[in-house]
Amino acid sequence: ITTKSNRVLRDLDLIAPAAHEGLAAVAISVTSLDPSISRTLEPRAPAGRKRLEAIARLNEAGVPTLLAVAPVIPQITDHELESIVEAGVAAGARAGFYLPFRLPHE
Questions:
Q1: Phi, psi of 87 (to 5 degrees)
Q2: Which of 4, 36, 66, 72 could form an SS bridge with 27, CB 3.0 to 4.6 Å?
Q3: What is the number of other CB atoms lying within 10 angstroms of the CB of residue 80?
């Protein structure tokens, strides 16, 4: 499951048993930990901190979790990459990846 929402927790009662059988994992994307950047880039999405809390709750329930730092936008979110990864590790993410945003003609 790949999502940018902490609402995945609503289905934890279904996801956890599947994860224990090796059939499910969840990747949650975090774009920014700065509320003003988050509101600008993803105005209707849950804040980065809420997504990290979801990673922690999923991890506590035994669900393998991944942190997706996405999108990484040069000069806007790239300076946060290390702090987002550190927060993801602290929340219990087992792995992670990032997706760079490419501008046209770059």
A1: -65, -35
A2: 66
A3: 20
Contact present, 81 and 41 (Cβ < 8 Å): no
Q: Is the pTM of this model over 0.85?
A: yes
Q: What is the pLDDT of residue 38?
A: 94
Give the helix, strand, coil percentages of the chain, each rounded to 5. 45, 20, 35
Task: Output the six-digit token pair for 13.
Answer: 């009662």
Residues 20, 86: Cα–Cα separation, whole Å: 26
CA-nearest of 4, 100, 8, 99 to 59 is: 8
41 near 32, Cβ under 8 Å? yes
Q: Please, what are the averages of pLDDT over each run of 10 residues along the chain (106 residues)?
A: 97 98 98 96 95 98 98 94 98 97 80
